[in-house]
Amino acid sequence: MAIATKKPAEKPPLEKIFGPHGWLARHHPHFEYRRSQLEMAEAVESALENRQHLIVEAGTGTGKTLAYLVPILRCSERVVVSTGTKNLQEQVFFKDVPFLKKLFPEMRVTLMKGRQNYLCRQKLYDIEKQPVLSGMEEVDMYAQIREWEKHTESGDRAELQNLRDTSELWSRIDARGEACTGQKCKEFERCFITLMHQRAAESDILIVNHHLFFADLGLRQMEFASLLPDYAAIVFDEAHQIEDVATQYFGVQISNYRVEELARDTEATLRAKSLEGAEVLGAVADLRHRADIFFDLFPAKDGRNAFHNREPFLQTNRGTYSSLLNALVRLASELTRLKDRPEEINNLARRAEELRRGFEFALESKERNFVYWWERRGRGVFLEVSPIDVSALMRERLFDKVPAVVLTSATLAVAGNFDFLKARLGVQNAKEKVLESHFDFGEQALLYTPAHLPDPREPDFPRLASEEIVQILKATHGRAFVLFTSYQQMREIFERVRPRLRYPMLLQGTAPRTALLDRFRSTRHAVLFATSSFWQGVDVQGQQLSAVIIDRLPFAVPSDPVVAARIRMINEDGGNAFTEYQTPEAVIALKQGFGRLIRSETDRGVLAILDQRIVRKPYGRVFFASLPHYRRTDKLEELRAFMREC
Ligand code: SF4
């Protein structure tokens, strides 16, 4: 497929756009000239023109979205932009792109999300024939979706304001790939996925997220139809997240939910197609029963566990395991025996076979570069196979195939260089740039490292840390994020601090994330206690957020199966996992967490790290060398004085 989407245009210097008197200065309501933004735009343009890879760290406030969008719009070939979250994707598509349309009116841009975000028209029509809507709320929602389907252009669920994130109804009518019959579907020509692919094939820019991008990379490898049309370059925003996403998509995951979805879809398809299938229904019931017995073998405690003992597990439970595989084989064969079966039935048989192979891979394969583990989350049991090191896969599937890959984020460098990122992702031959933020961190932020607290692994730490947090919050009048590396510590310290202060206290887990953030933004002097999901992608400007307090250095939990496997592999290969992996990863996480505080030139506030190892241990130097040049103190009195000036 062609990737040259438009003729190369005459390009005036980027200074004419980003310079002090450039196009942005004349048209953007909040534009301020930033040398680093112009430098980033020049670096991205050069990477695209010369077909080179580029790593660029651009501090908060650089205006990096425009700095990569403008060169992309001036590029004559198709470029993909991949963001860390759907929120950021929408922000780029609905805010930044329309603004730049004034300068590039011809450009064609398509927003693409994962298939489960879009409605499947065929399933929507099929469900009408089934008495499966439960309760007034679902009936009402169905009616709304039926109406919306008549006029929506995208079919994207984000347009449905009243649809709950966890809607059971949506999971039965979304366009996920497993149940799609593709060109054999009656609705194929009108299908929202088909229309999105057509728009994408005619577009200059595709705005995707990392999950969709890596799902596509996985499909390309398996020689299925890909999701994205061919492209000449890719820009990853929030690129510090891509090792995690790649790990997920280069691995295999099977679960009791996937088995149940197959069972449910089989029943629904028989009903929707009015097929007689007593044998198939018998095979579905058998599969459910066998799967229940199999998944019950995993202890009922939430958490991620290494699956080192797969061989003894199989020896002990061979009968249960074989019965489950046989139930999948039986279902596939009953499905293919149905006379005059529509394509949906063949699809279900294929899924049963894929699941069987997934179980075999998770329980029997012996690949050295993979770690085998399982997780329980609520009612879900997940069997996982993850690559320990994604660098070779990334090189082979991405960096050697795509001429220009740009990695950008505010947090990519450790102690001023990209050695860690390059080693983790397998990047070779990339241009590199670290662009300082134009914020005056020495003026705007005070880093407080109380030296008198014990090591956070000491039993007395929660009590003494709680006392310290109370003192800091009194000085900042609340208005703080208190961020933790563990739920248990968060809850314990929350219970200790709450009775001591009269500020409104919010706790992660008591309401959905967006609701908590809205309450934080709209409640004066609020304090939010939270863990890792609030360390990234949260933007609260102004005085409402005046302090970020972090309980301990955010080292990944070494007992986590993926982390443990990575540590083991680096050490076995003669490296030092603590310096090469654990410390740099914690540095990036700390930079992310602290990055919540200063979001604009007028923000001021306090950063506190209660883990004195940052001062006492030799590796603390790496953290300080990686953080912006904050003013520093270990005296509470100086913190109070700083806050009085704010
Ligand atoms: S082509 Fe697939 S996703 Fe589209 S309407 Fe048909 S079954 Fe649904």
Write up this protein:
The protein is an alpha/beta fold and 646 residues long. The protein folds into 4 domains: 15-108 and 202-248 and 390-435, Rossmann fold (3-Layer(aba) Sandwich), CATH 3.40.50; 119-182, no CATH class; 252-387, Fumarase C, Chain B, domain 1; 441-645, Rossmann fold (3-Layer(aba) Sandwich). The chain is 47% helix and 13% strand. The protein is built from 26 helices and 18 strands. It has a 7-stranded parallel beta sheet, sandwiched between helices. α21 links the parallel β14 and β15 (527-530). α10 (210-221) packs parallel to α11. The termini are far apart. The mean pLDDT is 92. The site of iron/sulfur cluster has 13 residues, from α6. The site of iron/sulfur cluster (SF4) has 13 residues, from α6.
List the helices and strands and how they pair.
Layout: H1 15-18, H2 23-27, H3 35-50, E1 53-58, H4 64-73, E2 79-83, H5 86-100, E3 109-111, H6 121-127, H7 135-151, H8 168-173, H9 192-201, E4 205-209, H10 210-221, E5 233-236, H11 242-249, E6 252-255, H12 256-272, H13 278-295, E7 303-306, H14 310-337, H15 343-364, E8 370-377, E9 380-387, H16 391-399, E10 404-409, H17 419-425, E11 430-435, H18 441-444, E12 445-448, H19 461-476, E13 480-483, H20 487-497, E14 505-507, H21 513-522, E15 527-530, E16 547-550, H22 561-572, H23 577-594, E17 605-609, H24 613-616, H25 620-626, E18 631-633, H26 636-645
Parallel strand pairs: 1-10, 1-11, 2-4, 2-5, 3-4, 5-10, 12-17, 12-18, 13-15, 13-16, 14-15, 16-17
Antiparallel strand pairs: 6-9, 7-8, 8-9
The structure holds iron/sulfur cluster (SF4).
Residues 120-123, 175, 180-182, 185, 187-188, 191, 193 line the site of iron/sulfur cluster (SF4).
